[in-house]
Amino acid sequence: AKDFGRNQVVYFSDTLDKEIKAKVHLEHKLRQAISDEALTVYLQPQFDAQKNRFIWAEALVRWIDKDEGFIPPDKFIGVAEETGLIHDLGLLVLRQVCRYLQQHGKALRLVGIDGIAVNLSSRQLFAKNFYSSVMEMLASYAISPQQIEFEVTESLLMENTEQAIRLMQLFKDQGFRLAMDDFGTGYSSLAYLKQFPVDCVKIDRNFIKDIPQDEQDKEISSAIIAMAQKLGLDIVAEGVETIEQSEFLQAQGCRVMQGYYYAKPMPIEQTFNLTADFS
Ligand code: C2E
Ligand code: CA
Ligand code: CA
Ligand code: CA
């Protein structure tokens, strides 16, 4: 038994060692990619079924490494958060978004897109210079806050509710839009929603993906939509992949849809060719 135990220890520390090395390697590469501006930003359009056109788009960071190829955000956002690289990464994303709006604002409006939503990680919102960095960035590209939405997650806000509300209000007062991302996955209840100065709720893909088969998911999405409507909030459904999902959500009162059924995340140039014909 003792030998077995020793082997276990050796085995675990080996894995741990490999994991740490992989993380350090990734951190090193990510730091380099950020300083080279080797990360790009894709846009995923959001479709308004009532207006029958795209209205807005979400910015999603993309990293194509020359050795390892495509590295998905779920692999490196966590590392960026742990190492503090998220601050530079976040500003890089915002800078590209400002550049898109400055250089291609007209082309985006032609296909219906009025603004771009940007994901915020925990730590970014609470960082000391975040607000002033954002305002400086927008000013330097002559972008108005009305063209930007920040998507925040529940878990971020629950860390420090009062400060989060204060910071969010600061952005709201400037005219930014705020969205509650991944709604329903956190540990807060619908009642918390009222506290935060958000304009919009994004229903998490996990509640959408098994519609129409899963009765419980249908109940949950309907409840989120009904509650958001009562609170006067806009609603965006994430990860809509089928016409059945879209029709169900529309019947429940959700107008705005984001997902592969309508459009995948794409380089900005591709958005100029979008056509909205889903009837
Ligand atoms: P998220 O904010 O929930 O973004 C939605 C994710 O769902 C994106 O994954 C998007 O590509 C994917 N998606 C959209 N429609 C569909 C669909 O119909 N089916 C399926 N299966 N997936 C769909 P992505 O781009 O891999 O990003 C993953 C997560 O990484 C994001 O989740 C977000 O939390 C984070 N992330 C991405 N870009 C940024 C960024 O610039 N900053 C920060 N802080 N986080 C980011
Ligand atoms: Ca998001
Ligand atoms: Ca999500
Ligand atoms: Ca997420």
UniProtKB/TrEMBL annotation:
Asked if the record carries the keyword Cell division, the reply is no
What organism is recorded for this protein? Catenovulum sediminis
Source domain of life is Bacteria
Its keywords, alphabetically, are:
Membrane, Transmembrane, Transmembrane helix
Q: Where is the EAL domain?
A: 23-279
Keyword Transmembrane helix present in the record's keywords: the answer is yes
Name of the protein in question:
EAL domain-containing protein
